Amino acid sequence: MEFVPGRAEEVLREAPAGCGVFALYGAGEGDRPYLAKSGNIRRRLQRLLEPSEGQTKRLNLRDRIARVAWSRTGSDFESVLLLYRASSEAFGRDETRKRLKLYPPYVVRFTVENRFPRMYVTSRLGRRTLHTSYGPFASRASAERYVDGVNELFHLRRCHEELVPFPEHPGCAYGEMKKCSAPCQARVTDDEYRAEADAVLDFLATRGESLLEKIAAEREKASEDMEFEAAAAAHERYVEVKATAALAGELVRPLDKLRGVVFLPAAEDAAVVQVWLMQGGCLHGPERFSTLGVRLAKEQAEVGSSLFAQPLMLEAVPLEGPAATGESAEERLLGAIARMEGGQPPHDVATMADHLAMLKRWYYRPEAKRIGVICFPEGDTWPVRKMVRAAAKVGLKSIPAATTEVAEVAPERG
């Protein structure tokens, strides 16, 4: 949309009073655009384009802009993804990372290629080591707490040196406390250390389930054999392992196997949600998914069957829409995921780190401030019914926001 300072009110009247991404373009061909996201595009443009009153240090671009463009989004996370794509095209990847303050996430690296593997925390990602890198974690501190907890459960080395075992090696404090198998002093064979390393690898890959299942079986057997002291000790260890496993959120997985479907509200329709697929270290999408006709049993039990309580059930479905195809909601969702699975993975690890950083920043927000939901596969399959319900809840939660926006815009129509 063309912008003339004398007709700024017309442009501002057209701008949406909701979240999204906007661009301000100068008159010159070589002028770089001003790109930004905002929770209220109209209010932000008013600050940038309305005349300044008196002397102020506030940024004002009124006399430098020739064209204005914007794109409405349904959530802040969608705004971040859209701004990342637009900025990458306008400024390149390197400058975009600086503008959006995207830093590689911290992961736990397991040096499986070493003769005596160990764990350490790093933010350096390598394509050859994705299968032994576990994350992303919320911060370096949270990743270090997880590593410390896992090291307390097993007897891997914690030193950084390249070991050449010999009995006269001075060792370390962990070896003296029997918290390390001390391969430096040749206390264990290579095969024994490798067996311990494989157990740690299983723990990391299953987020603790491999060890929890083993201890639970030992506890059950001790109870059946009336060995109550052994059962109590096993239960105490089970609680300890459970607490350590909980230090890694559900998002923490081997990076090469990190898959998830993100549901975000759409801007234009509360009955439609956006579907994004995290696969291969990259967010693919979005695909549109209609939740019309999906009734949540829990909500129906709580508020009754009134259509006023579930307004989406009152919406008419067009004949050419999803209802006309005869496909169920589960089939439509699987179809949307299948279309995104053909997306190309990023060509460089830096781009992968960008997508992981954006996902991590959104996922580790307080739940009350996080708009949208992510669902993970169960084994090799998607829990489709659970995902359809999750998508419907995302659409249902966006109804009050849509109603509020209409209330804000309505007074300006007169």
From TrEMBL:
<feature type="domain" description="UVR">
    <location>
        <begin position="209"/>
        <end position="244"/>
    </location>
</feature>
<dbReference type="InterPro" id="IPR050066">
    <property type="entry name" value="UvrABC_protein_C"/>
</dbReference>
<protein>
    <submittedName>
        <fullName>Nuclease subunit of the excinuclease complex</fullName>
    </submittedName>
</protein>
<dbReference type="GO" id="GO:0009380">
    <property type="term" value="C:excinuclease repair complex"/>
</dbReference>
<dbReference type="InterPro" id="IPR001943">
    <property type="entry name" value="UVR_dom"/>
</dbReference>
<dbReference type="GO" id="GO:0006974">
    <property type="term" value="P:DNA damage response"/>
</dbReference>
